[in-house]
Amino acid sequence: FIHELALSHAIEKEELYVQYQLIYHPAKQVVIGAEALLRWNCSARGIVQPNNFIPVAEETGLIVDIGYWVIRQACKDWHLLQKEYGDEFKLSVNISRVQLNEEDFVDQIMQIVREEEVAPPSIELEITESTTVHSMQDVQQTLHRLRAHGFTIALDDFGTGYSSLSMLTLLPIDKLKIDRSFVADGNAPLIAAMLAMASALQLQVIAEGIETYEQYMMLKEMGCWGVQGYYINRPMNRDLLPKQTEIGR
Ligand code: G
Ligand code: G
Ligand code: MN
Ligand code: NA
Hints:
- The protein is α/β, with parallel strands linked by helices and 249 residues long.
- The protein has helices at residues 4-8, 50-60, 63-85, 97-100, 105-115, 136-149, 164-170, 180-184, 188-200, 213-221; strands at residues 16-25, 30-42, 46-48, 90-94, 123-128, 152-158, 175-178, 204-207, 226-227.
- The termini are far apart.
């Protein structure tokens, strides 16, 4: 049980921080991006995992301000990471349904990237299928506006929610992130089918939860565009991330 009051002070008390997990391009053998993963170092209970406080943040609406804080932090870190990984480097940020439903979400995120001097194509927004269960038309419109500004959109946890396939035609997206459960199951035929489908729809694919050399080689040989997982790196603070030259696989 997370006390809402404690969470509501987390930003001002500087208890929030972001860790990063690299996204690696197996064909080119280069880092192409990273996903921002929020952490909370609570003074009362220590490090709280996102699965334990993001639902509370969503229920209370605190996720809106926390989410803007994450986006701003990602923009600040982008400048530093881009020096290491190059101009094409993208930072992905998880966006919850509650954030997307904010009427001024597009204006707010545009203001943040302007102030932080980051171009929208350097930022990818990860949404989940559950993001889209309610008010599909509003979500569609918001995503279209974000893409018109140059942000890219990734459908996260792909294959785990309801109506996965209809989402692909309903939502304007650029990428699929194959949920790590499919990688863990070693379900090669299913992954191959997802890759073929994504290719037909001209979507790039990132496979999540790559933990072993065998999983890495399988996805690489299948032509998967990007991979992410403990095999590349555990989520970690920006200054500890492996350098481009340290991460040849
Ligand atoms: O590292 P992991 O335990 O970080 O993340 C657990 C879950 O929390 C994932 O489903 C991830 O998408 C979600 N998550 C991590 N960071 C954020 C964030 O900044 N915003 C939102 N909305 N979800 C996040
Ligand atoms: O739901 P989302 O994909 O945004 O969140 C990613 C979650 O998966 C985070 O909790 C992150 O810490 C976790 N994660 C990242 N890589 C691996 C991995 O290789 N194995 C496992 N088991 N979890 C991972
Ligand atoms: Mn994600
Ligand atoms: Na995911």
